[in-house]
Design brief:
Layout: H1 4-17, E1 28-34, H2 41-54, E2 59-64, H3 71-75, H4 83-87, H5 93-96, E3 97-99, E4 105-107, H6 121-135, E5 140-145, H7 151-159, E6 162-167, H8 171-187, E7 193-200, H9 203-221, E8 227-232, H10 235-243, H11 247-250, H12 255-269, H13 271-274, H14 280-288
Parallel strand pairs: 1-5, 1-6, 2-4, 2-5, 6-7, 7-8
Antiparallel strand pairs: 3-4
Helix pairs in contact: 2-12, 6-14, 7-14, 8-9
Length: 293
């Protein structure tokens, strides 16, 4: 059987040889964040990406957690290259993109992220061009950021087309999710948030949780916060983590797998998702790294 990574590299190579599109505007950029750790953000991001892919969308998953990158661990995939190798020009974009379950393309996190903000203009142009090669073939690029609101996470949130905020019914998670959105909204009111409640006991608990955050956002921030849906607390999720297989792959008929499928459908059904104009990867990178080309 042909190595799938070779197929991906050929795709990038064919992109490189054609006339550049100039916009890189095909991919919608989604940042996934949370107010605190332990809410299942990375697990959600991974399975959400797989759900979108199962619906025929072309998805690239980017592990953007600088300190605690773990998407590859959740998939049980050993990665040879990451962002660092691209920045040092030790590998091209086709080499640093790995394939996870269901042939999901992803870029491993870890070292290299902090070096992005010290790139020379020539290196920045190289990085942008390389990322644009694959971005032009994607419908969605998902960035799984670190928990909390670091300066790096703020850059991702304020540069993306959408920000999905993951919380749980725990009071600390609710408080921290609201605090994150408050800080971002006060300085960048244009940011588009969507709320997901993870590890919910049932639909009612998820709805009560979302209502608390949404009412506070409406009253104190004048922010209308769309509620995307919830994922049930499901023992299959823990079992899948131990197996290092995404729960939607290991247990496709589990409650959590059905929930994340429904969430993906809800996201795609939103009027603003597949009809609104997106900035594209070049616009995202320009805002993210605060450079103007």
């Amino acid at each position: 059987m042909m190595d799938q990574a070779q197929s991906l590299r050929r795709l990038v190579s064919s992109q490189d040889s054609r006339q550049p599109s100039g916009s890189g505007a095909s991919a919608r950029i989604i940042t996934v964040c949370s107010g605190k750790g332990g809410v299942g953000k990375s697990n959600f991001t991974l399975n959400f990406a797989l759900a979108l892919k199962a619906m025929g969308r072309k998805v690239l998953l980017f592990d953007a957690d600088i300190g605690m990158a773990n998407i590859d661990v959740l998939m049980g995939v050993s990665t040879k290259f990451n962002l660092y190798h691209l920045l040092k020009r030790e590998a091209d974009i086709g080499q640093i993109i790995q394939l996870g379950p269901q042939s999901l393309p992803f870029i491993a996190g870890g070292s290299g992220m902090d070096e992005l903000f010290a790139l020379s203009e020539a290196d920045l142009n190289y990085f942008t061009t390389q990322i644009a090669l694959i971005a032009d073939t994607m419908d969605f690029i998902l960035f799984d950021t670190g928990a909390g609101l670091s300066k790096e996470t703020m850059k991702f949130i304020t540069s993306a087309d959408d920000c999905l905020v993951v919380t749980t019914p725990e009071p600390t998670a609710i408080t921290d999710a609201y605090a994150l959105m408050k800080v971002v909204h006060n300085s960048h009111p244009e940011v588009s948030f969507r709320l997901i409640v993870n590890q919910a006991g049932d639909e009612r608990e998820a709805r009560v949780t979302s209502d608390k955050i949404r009412m506070a956002a409406s009253r104190f921030l004048q922010l209308e916060l769309p509620y995307l849906g919830y994922i049930s607390s499901d023992p299959h999720v823990v079992q899948a983590v131990k197996k290092q297989i995404p729960f939607s792959v290991a247990f496709p008929n589990s409650i959590a797998a059905k929930d994340v499928h429904r969430l993906a459908l809800s996201y795609l059904a939103a009027d603003s998702v597949e009809t609104a104009k997106v900035q594209g990867i070049k616009g995202f990178i320009s805002k993210w790294l605060k450079r103007n080309k």
